[in-house]
Amino acid sequence: MTIRYIWFDLGYTLVYQDREQVFIRYLTEQGIDMPKKRIEEAYHLADKYFMREFPGVLAGDRDTFFPWYLGVLNHLLGLRFHLTEQYRRIREIQQESGAGWRAFPFAHTVLQRLKERSYGIGLISNWDRTARDVLAETGLLPLLDEIVISSEVGVEKPDRAIFQLALERAGAEPGECLYVGDNYYDDIVGSRQAGMKSCLINRFGRLGIEELESVHVILSIQDLPQLSAAASTIIS
After folding, report:
1. DSSP 8-state symbol, 14
2. Helix (H, G, I), strand (E, B) or coil at 24
3. Would you place residue 39 in the very low, low, confident or very high pLDDT band (cuts 50, 70, 90)?
């Protein structure tokens, strides 16, 4: 069946935070110099660890998990800090720098190109009530045909119900939809259960997802315009 609708996750699929730069500033204050690439990889591995071992935690209240997350991040980088104090200072740096959510530089172009090719474009996201503000502030809102947010509909990925609701709203069949996200256990598992095809974003290739098989991996949504012409070949 031909793909005619492409659905996206939000965080680290369409938008991101410059968390690595915030962390670098914190390390600089501690007299530590570390390459940004190493920090990026550590954040990536920490994300994948939490996605795999603690489903749903990363979508929760930051205060309930971030010191714990920092402990994992520090371990990956060979660092040791007082986690409560580290968390407090990182939050201060974020506020001082205004490090909020930003659209990936290529996001608008990719979505516009897909729309020009007559694809429907939708969002299915586990997010709190700020989701629409993030979409508006990043300029992504006008590019989306359908928006389904967990805090608004009362169900979260990977529950197939949130995907089925999206299909109903779009008037689309599962087999003609492609879902794109960075969390295998929420995005790929959930969309597969609903009968959609899927792509997993993993910016470091197979790093952090070595346990996964039979999943189509792309580095970012920039790969989608090239893939869309052959979407029927996407596994899952």
Report:
1. T
2. helix
3. very high
Reply yes or no: is the peptide bond before residue 158 cis, omega within 30 of 0: yes
What 3-state class would DSSP assign to 199?
Answer: strand
At 15 the three-state DSSP class reads strand
- CATH fold of 5-15+102-233, please? Rossmann fold (3.40.50)
pLDDT band at residue 232 using 50, 70 and 90 as cut-offs? very low
Q: Which amino acid is at 9?
A: D
Q: CA angle 204-210-215, nearest 5°?
A: 85
Distance CA 213, CA 235 (A): 11
Cβ 178 vs Cβ 145: under 8 Å: no
pTM for the complete prediction? 0.93
Q: Give pLDDT tens digits for 66-83.
A: 999 999 999 999 999 999
What does the pLDDT look like over 111-166, one tens digit per residue? Answer: 999 999 999 999 999 999 999 999 999 999 999 999 999 999 999 999 999 999 99
Per-residue three-class SS string for 121-186: EEEEECCCCCHHHHHHHCCCHHHCCEEEEHHHHCCCCCCHHHHHHHHHHHCCCHHHEEEEECCHHH
113 close to 88: Cβ distance less than 8 angstroms = no
**How many DSSP H helices and E strands does the chain contain?**
10, 8
